[in-house]
Amino acid sequence: xxxxxxxxxxxxxxxxxxxxxxxxxxxxxxxxxxxxxxxxxxxxxxxxxxxxxxxxxxxxxxxxxxxxxxxxxxxxxxxxxxxxxxxxxxxxxxxxxxxxxxxxxxxxxxxxxxxxxxxxxxxxxx
Length: 126
Ligand code: HEM
Known about the structure:
Blueprint: E1 2-3, H1 7-21, H2 28-34, H3 39-55, H4 64-74, H5 79-96, E2 97-98, H6 100-125
Helix pairs in contact: 1-3, 1-5, 5-6
The chain binds protoporphyrin IX containing FE.
Protoporphyrin IX containing FE binds at residues 27, 30-31, 35, 37-38, 42, 45, 49, 62, 64, 67-68, 71, 77, 81-82, 85, 109, 112-113, 116.
Organism: Chryseobacterium camelliae
Keywords: Heme, Iron, Metal-binding, Transport
Protein name: Group III truncated hemoglobin
């Protein structure tokens, strides 16, 4: 299977991931109804986000928590939503890539999801 090495690989991965996300009955609504995502803007951000994480090229300059807090206020992002997000991400990585960066993409997503869920839990109590 192919290694995850280039921005083109990331584009393929991210595009395949979101094509699953928008069909998923558990989490699609966050993207389609709540955030009403502008895909022409969101996808390049996600390419840069993963490029920064996996290849250390700091092309992503955003603030992921700042994007998720307002969504959580409209509809709580619960553990089962994070689990489904991670399940779709892991599936998509494993269907398309193998090797160190593929493993890292799964591992990093798990850690970020954990941290995100934790920060949301705290924010809800404030
Ligand atoms: C329940 C799980 C999740 C849901 C429902 C969710 C949903 C969303 C939505 C709706 C947006 C906003 C898009 C827009 O406003 O155009 C977004 C942005 C983003 N998400 Fe998530 N997300 C989840 C988990 C994650 C995880 C685990 C990561 C990282 C591994 C992540 C990384 C990002 C990044 C980097 C952005 C772009 C932020 C920016 O504007 O710079 N998300 N997400």
